[in-house]
Amino acid sequence: AHKGEKGARGLRFAPVAPNTEDAVTIPDGYRQNVVIRWGEPILRGAPAFDPENQSAAAQAGQFGYNNDFLALLPLPGERSRRLLVANHEYTDEILMFRGYDAENPTREQAEIAWAAHGLSAVVVEGDHRTGRLTAVPRHHLNRRVTATTEFRLTGPAAGSDLLKTSADPTGRKVLGTLNNCSGGTTPWGTTLHGEENFNQYFANSSRATDKRYGIGTGATERKWERFDKRFDVAQEPNEVHRFGYVVEFDPYDPTSTPRKHTALGRFKHEAATVRLTEDGRPVVYTGDDERFDYFYKFVGSKRMRRGGSRADREHNLSLLDEGTLYVARLTGDSPAADIDGSGKLPADGEFDGSGEWIPLATATAHGAVSHVDGMTADEVFVFTRLAGDKVGATKMDRPEDIQPSPHTGKVYVALTNNTNRGKAGSAPADEANPRNANKHGHILELTEARGRAESTRFGWSLFLVAGDPADPATYFAGFPKDRVSPISCPDNVAFDPHGNLWISTDGNQLGSHDGLFGVATRGDRRGELKQFLTVPTGAETCGPLVEDRRVLVAVQHPGEVDGASVEKPASVWPDGPGKIVRPAVVAVWRADGRDIGI
Ligand code: FEO
Ligand code: CA
Ligand code: CA
Ligand code: CA
């Protein structure tokens, strides 16, 4: 059925129609398999998954819950094997534990949840005739990182008074990572992971700085503060300052201590994606996923080393410790009167303009300097949102994943939605966020000045204004709207080998389940958006990786529907009726063995 399908190279498949199937629905002529599910044992000694008798010790050796970011890394010397790294963003206790009492969770349940957070590294094996992937349990590189694994704080704020706790008077050693959402793969062979909604784990705060981060004044939903006082801000005020960073993980060294990079700032990091300057320095883009928050860029000052020695690797692990952190300010080029909040294109036919990267602080080998009046460098790196507020950064509609095109260098920023835009007391629509009550989100295309990753100026335009194409307040880069798929709430973005942008969604507001879409960014098909798959009931689509012969997605929080529980499931994916719903990673390939979408 896919033969003769029209589309840009890489996007020649029959689009999947919007639907509400409790399944991963893929185009005709494609096949899929579940690569790994929550609870599958990956470490030596870990037991088989038994949801009725789960324990923290078992979970610590099993694949975690709610897979989000995915990386698939080479494994030299092991034929047809690769190393999969996955984030486990958060836990859904009501869907994990039969008879869960949210008011009175047990210590064991809390400890299972700690062990179900974090990261997994697991070797996977491909079948050379298909795109099927299967996990290789007990491989020596398989690893779990959880909410209790030891981390090192690095960079300019490490060791500062703001980061010292009673358990760690050095301010350099943290236990665990939380709410790892999306991430990135570095050119030096490590992975980056954004600690996003860390606020939800911390209770009993009364400080203004915490309020800016959404940390609550009362108990938390999971009640972890009952089992470990570090989650109680009233008892351990600085522990919360040690979450909300970009984490770097070296999956090739199973003994490595993962790092939290203070130089990239502290906020609800959706992700972190890296490119290099022409002279080999890292540039990292990272969004703060909150209504009316900002997106950022870090420009490193040290060059990556290409050699493979231990010293080179150690050097590369320090690349994100020195450099300058910037925040984005955008200015539209159309008169303000042209932007009425409806999404109607301005008279010049485009939502577009110019922008600047405003420096916040610079970290060097000899210390750090703040560029923000009234804030020290430590304060800028730990209370980065407040620094953005002070310099007048542009309040965006929830900046999620950001991805530079490896083909053109243009940078794509997913802005998932913001239903509060234009409400009384909130910022009104502007040219970069042109719809009030923005339910469906948009994608911004950013062009660094002179094409240089380290530039402090850029141009921008909106590439996609999402929604039902029949809605006049949508825009698909100028492509005819009768020939595109409807899309709502773009979240993660990735490029395929042909230079097409792939977009996964979270929170579809058009009546369909979430899904994965591909869209050409160049040529006469620029803006032709096609849906490649949909995910089961209650799930969001995460982690997309699009290779020549395989698409990999993380199906996150299937069955997460109001009122659902183990006893009353909204989804029975992936194992069918009578089985507990399980977040899982899915591989999709073409039945005839040819490349995706050609
Ligand atoms: Fe975890 Fe912003 O998505
Ligand atoms: Ca304009
Ligand atoms: Ca996300
Ligand atoms: Ca999201």
UniProtKB/TrEMBL annotation:
The lineage of its organism: Bacteria, Bacillati, Actinomycetota, Actinomycetes, Kitasatosporales. Coiled coil: none annotated. Pfam families: PhoX (PF05787). PANTHER family: DUF839 DOMAIN-CONTAINING PROTEIN (PTHR35399:SF2), SLR8030 PROTEIN (PTHR35399). It comes from the Bacteria. This is PhoX family protein.
